[in-house]
Amino acid sequence: MPIKLKKETEDKLIESIKRYFEEHLEEDIGDLKAKLLLDYCLKEIGPSIYNQAIFDAQAYLHEKLVDLESACYEPEFQYWKK
């Protein structure tokens, strides 16, 4: 599943990449080079980050579901035990 960004998000990321190159590498790059780098990152690195995020979410939900029984359990037939 390819990662598709909103135009506004993509524009902000391109500006961020350009700023990073300017401040850390002392190079000015244009919109085209920044867009190509962003596209590469989304295709090559993005899936690994996405898969790890899904794995983390599954682990978190599994942990919460396992605890659900003890957190949401009410003993039955307790009226006469008072």
Q: Can you lay out the helices and strands and say which pair or pack?
A:
Blueprint: H1 7-24, H2 31-44, H3 46-71
Helix pairs in contact: 1-2
Annotation keywords:
single chain; 82 residues; mainly alpha
Describe this structure in words.
The protein is mainly α. The protein has one domain (7-71). It has helices at 7-24, 31-44, 46-71. Helix 1 packs across helix 2. The chain is rod-shaped, with a radius of gyration of 24 Å. The mean pLDDT is 92.
Count of structural domains: 1
Distance between the termini: 58 Å
Rg value: 24 Å
Question: What level of helicity do the residues show?
Answer: over 70%
What is the average per-residue confidence, as pLDDT, rounded to a whole number? 92
The tally of beta strands, per DSSP, is 0
H-E string? HHH
Low-confidence stretches: none
Shape: rod-shaped
Question: In percent terms, what proportion of residues is strand?
Answer: under 5%
Structural class, from secondary structure content? mainly alpha
Count of helical segments? 3
The main sheet comes to: none
In short:
With 82 residues, the protein is mostly helical. It has one domain. The chain has helices at residues 7-24, 31-44, 46-71.
